[in-house]
């Protein structure tokens, strides 16, 4: 039987290592001899960087710890594979490495850009008559992958956002004075994670007062009117904003803060500072104390607060990818399909990758309220099951313990 | 027997409600009839805002939930009591309220400014021959109160800082590229909480590479040299900076970011933005990708990650304050004294408040390394016991549940 290789790509999530654990477990079950891990994804593989995971994952405890470790344990990359016509050498080099390692199955855990990689590699394999199978495992806190009900990584990020907001709302209300707290949440062009701020609302928490998703233009005058109105009723207003909000001219709000917004290697702008811009707006226009809070990378790496549902599904998606590859599938991504409306049952399926790669799924209209400053009950019903359960950390010396790659 | 009244003051901590729970438990044990809570501290009390805690805290579950609730459940204030000579009316009004409520014991949970309140009130009481007892319960994430080994609230904030840093360090290392991550930690003039960043170092984590406390001048050239040197050895450099770092001219680094730094009612500057200033410095001078992360209020309100040791000590300090007041003490603050070097045994004692009020305890030289860019093993030995154990949250609907003040 052929060997398997797995890579992690793009921005990390709290449970991207659970998917790796799922891949490893299924490959071991299938009695695959060598289970390789690319170090820093396809970029590292091209440089000859890989390990044999069996040298590092030996015990049940290793797997338990791996699931509880944030960030991609194998390292990640943002490597855009060239088009087949332009970059033939890259493909040839890669397939040479794969053939030398006798790889039969190639699993890539990542977001839309990584699925683009799977699409290109499976097409190239087809064009040269290679039998290597390429399967994608979805991963992104942004939840913007098409066709799947949701994406592993989103649930844990949503849980972190909602739990932290509950704490911040409490903190913001501590003084008997007027104040506006603006919290910035990640999500490139899609507002799924910002929408999760609405999950903070419960019997013990009013939730954020206003939620602004990038699916709607940020209307400055409307916003100021809303805040002003709320401040007449209550002391503290808490606002959740997406990092990628744009004004009516299509300009990112954070561009007012960062003069020369940087770009990553996919040409995506690196966004941060929207909360500071909105907070400054409140202070200037309404003359009220305001604070901008940016969750930053913690929302994608706070594995100590990971959702057990999310971790289990990430594991399942990893397992499913291996089963699919071994059964002969290629050019597919694992998706999660919700079986029923009322009972939460999630079933993994396969989906043709060309319908997923490079697509961005944004938040649909029925999940955004009519004023464009909040989410609907339908969204909360969609999202609530995803944050259930806890993957309690293993504590050592008072802190969550993480897995370390070292040969024993 | 006389009644008791308790207030919470200043910036909240993750365990300020544990101290309130301790006051309540001890007062109930002492069979005190009415256990009043000031709403928004002494500021609220002067406006006649108080509640009877027995109306709200009825069951063991209420107490368990109260301990797990962030921010001051009674609300807080930043109210500076005028000097006795200048503000006699304020004192007269306050004592009139206290006498109407038949208060015998006045407990105030807070930091150095709140201890100033206890000092002034106990002196005024003495001057008018009042028998009301005034006792302070220490509270601050800054750990800058004199005489006590440490301050309740610090251990949980330290645990949050160290745990989050472990996650951020993992995340920062995910790509195979040079980058510098600068994390900003709270602490007005004292670097105790920033020093706690050093606790992140363990077998599974290298810890932050550089730690800068406000006890040392931030030497820009030395810093850049250190970062440059580190980047030759490794990809990712993680720097922990105090929010209140100053340059060699004594100017706050964050003042470069916020043109008109605001002040609170005690005249303390509101500091935030140091990480952004330092990150900008790295990008500009070393031409390397850099990210500034500000923990902001989460470090004082992340009760979901509270230290059990800290919560228990906060409770104990609250109990001790009541016992002291009932036994006739006044004008004192509860302190924690460490009994042994090797075994961690903490005993509450009383200390004359005039030696504590308005004092700021900074980090001593033996806890800072000779280069001024890290902490010593002696500091880690001091701080490690304070973050041990977990006050696990009570989860509901996938999120930590909090106590709500509502009459049942």
Describe this structure in words.
Two copies of one chain form a homodimer. The first copy, chain A, is of the alpha/beta class and 408 residues long. In chain A, 34% of the residues lie in helices and 17% in strands. Chain A is elongated.
The major sheet of chain A is characterized as: 7 strands, mixed
The ordered string of helix (H) and strand (E) elements of chain A is EHEHEHHEHEHEHEHEHEHHEEHEE
How are the strands ordered across the major sheet of chain A?
3-2-1-4-5-10-11
Examine the secondary-structure arrangement and name the CATH architecture of the largest domain in chain A: 3-Layer(aba) Sandwich
Shape assignment of chain A: elongated
Question: Which fold name is given in CATH as the topology of the largest domain in chain A?
Answer: Rossmann fold
Helical content class of chain A = 25-40%
User: DSSP helix count of chain A?
Assistant: 12
Describe the oligomeric state of these chains in a short phrase.
homodimer
By secondary-structure content and strand pairing, the structural class of chain A works out as alpha/beta
Regions with little confidence, pLDDT below 50 for 5+ residues of chain A = 258-267
- Main interface pair? A-B, 65 and 65 residues
What's the total count of β strands of chain A? 13
> What's the structural domain tally of chain A?
2
Q: Radius of gyration of chain A, Cα only, in angstroms? A: 22 Å
